[in-house]
Amino acid sequence: MPDDRKRLPIIPCISHARRAVLIAFHKPYDVLSQFTKELPEHRTLADYGLPKDVYPIGRLDRDSEGLLLLSDEKPLVDRLLNPRHEHPRTYCVQVEGIPDESQMQTLQNGTLQIQGHRVARAVATVLHEEPVFAPRHPPIRFRAAIPTSWIQLTLTEGKNRQVRRMTAAVGLPTLRLVRVAIGALQLHDLPPGTWKHLSAEDRKLLGV
User: d(Cα 129, Cα 199) in Å, to the nearest integer?
Assistant: First the structure.
């Protein structure tokens, strides 16, 4: 017998789920890693046209520069920041003085104590060529009698002002600090104060 039942058209199912957002931002000097001001004169992330509903994953101090991630994906906070995952973050640091072998060993061998906390092992190298960054405004202080140098530090933990406290503890005060990588994702030539959406390939570099 013929099937007289009315056949309904097949309508494809369209997902309206919002795509997760992950952004790389080059935080300039003198900008807070948050969207709200603490004082009227503060500059914040709200000044840079970032999308709604994103928040920073971790932070950079007001006087630090470089790569900052923002997202609306809350699970990324644990994946990228919890020390148990040992997710590396790399900094170029301009310091007062010329590092010697002993200072560099102390920075990386896991014996350094800061405010009662024993810092995790790190990777520390002297940069024999000065890295190329946009000029900082205002520029760093120079003292004619004291030379400066650049080192690179890769950490797997991120205590408050940790890099600055580490270099100060070994007698190498930090003058300028730029985060240049998170995992294998590099800052490269992203200009200060600008941001970009990260691609699937970028996510692979982050390991997320």
Answer: 31
Q: Is the pLDDT assigned to residue 138 strictly greater than 80?
A: yes
Judgement on whether residues 58 and 124 belong to the same structural domain of the protein: no
Please pick, among 3, 30, 47, 61, the residue that the annotation labels catalytic.
61
pTM of the model: 0.88
Tokens standing for 203?
């996510």
One-letter amino acid at 177 equals L
Burial class, 186, CB count within 10 angstroms (exposed 0-12 / middle 13-18 / buried 19+): middle
Catalytic annotation on 30? Answer: no
Q: Looking at residue 175, what is its pLDDT? A: 97
Both 106 and 78 in one domain: the answer is: no
> What does the pLDDT look like over 63-80, one tens digit per residue?
999 999 999 988 887 778
- Domain with residue 114: its CATH number is 3.30.70.1560
**Residues 178/92, Cβ–Cβ less than 8 Å:** yes
Given a cut of 90, whether residue 135 has pLDDT beyond it is yes
- pLDDT of res. 86: 75
Residue 45 domain boundaries: 19-84+185-208
